[in-house]
Design goal:
Length: 229
């Protein structure tokens, strides 16, 4: 039997979980069936998306969707003040150590689709900057394309460098891009957009719009060993 995702239920679950007094193990244990139902629906939806992206892009990395979902528990080892559970569901698709990722967050404070390389290590970041420097016109064409601009709201905030990175001058024509430490573009979503029945098409449209950007990044880091641990 085909499982159909009810995103309204997903948001309702997150609201219930994050209602004052509920974000604790006792509440979660008492509502484990509720959580598992929402999670299984989300997995089924991600499988539909995964299968659709495999069809449209031969370079897409087929993903084990059960493994793609982020834990709903916060990591409190380094952030002990955070609540036990998150206020969002998240998943990472197209996971390949040498390519840009495709990322979902559906939550109470924000929902978005994002793609790119998040906080790449020094060697990878340097290679991306070199490719932007070498292929500046091509990169400009990608990020200024009307379809791209219509879909993506911004580069994900990453506290850009205040000064030019080593080897580049302040008057470099691409300096504002070269200052990035994070090469991820983001499409913000309203809950209404997510709940709408054409949400899968929104995801496919987003992925398609990002393909030139993703291909540029992938080309720039090809052959570089990457540590995603």
């Amino acid at each position: 039997m085909r499982i159909v995702m009810n995103f309204r239920k997903l948001y309702n679950f997150l609201r219930d979980l994050n209602t004052e007094g509920n974000n604790n193990k006792e509440w979660m244990d008492a509502h484990r069936d509720y959580y598992q139902q929402v999670r299984e629906e989300f997995i089924a939806f991600l499988q539909e998306v995964n299968d659709a992206l495999v069809e449209i892009d031969t370079n897409y990395q087929h993903t084990s969707v059960r493994d793609s979902i982020m834990r709903i528990n916060n990591n409190r080892m380094f952030h002990p003040d955070k609540p036990i559970y998150k206020d969002h569901f998240a998943a990472l698709l197209d996971v390949n150590p040498k390519t840009a990722d495709f990322f979902f967050t559906l939550g109470l404070r924000e929902s978005f689709l994002a793609t790119g390389l998040h906080r790449p290590e020094k060697e990878v970041l340097g290679s991306i900057r070199e490719e932007i420097d070498y292929s500046a016109e091509e990169f400009q064409d990608i990020v200024n394309d009307e379809k791209f601009k219509a879909v993506f709201d911004s580069f994900m905030d990453d506290k850009k460098l205040k000064n030019p990175p080593k080897g580049y001058t302040a008057d470099h024509p691409m300096i504002e891009y070269l200052k990035h430490k994070n090469f991820v573009v983001k499409r913000d979503l309203t809950q209404k957009q997510v709940i709408n029945t054409d949400f899968k098409q929104v995801i496919i449209e987003t992925y398609e719009a990002a393909r030139p950007f993703r291909e540029f990044l992938n080309r720039s880091i090809e052959g570089i060993p990457m540590d995603r641990s």
